[in-house]
């Protein structure tokens, strides 16, 4: 069953397909196959640095594209964590 039935509009994941909402662990597997936790920290630092300080490295379209792709994957990972947390809370309420 889709999570959309149980979530208010402000809580619906926008980056995850219905299938990914049903099998959220696959999204995290994909994220962590591509990025280690150290790489994630480094990329987050790059995002913050780029947002706060002008950096010539990001005048190159490929570098901007790579950083944006990382951001989207990270956002999908966060949505997945949100879905897993939602399912865990829903299950614990139904067990009560």
List keywords for this structure.
mainly alpha; elongated
How would you briefly describe this protein structure?
By secondary structure, the chain is an all-alpha fold.
- Reading the helices and strands in chain order gives HHHH
**Which secondary-structure class do the elements indicate?**
mainly alpha
Which shape, going by the Cα principal axes? elongated
- Summed over residues and divided by their number, the pLDDT gives a mean of 82
Tell me roughly what share of residues is in helical segments: 55-70%
Strands, total number: 0
> In terms of per-residue confidence, which ranges show pLDDT below 50 for 5 or more consecutive residues?
none
For the CA atoms, what is the radius of gyration? 16 Å
Cα-to-Cα separation, first versus last residue: 21 Å
Largest sheet: none
Percentage of residues in DSSP E strands: under 5%
With helices defined by DSSP (H or I, 4 residues minimum), what is the helix count?
4
Structure description:
- The chain has 96 residues and is an all-alpha fold.
- The chain has a domain at 35-91.
- The protein is 70% helix and 0% strand.
- The chain is built from 4 helices and no strands.
- The chain has helices spanning 18-22, 24-34, 37-52, 61-95.
- Helix 3 crosses helix 4 (61-95).
- The radius of gyration is 16 Å and the shape is elongated.
- It starts with 17 loop residues before the first helix and ends with a helix.
- The model has no long low-confidence stretch (mean pLDDT 82).
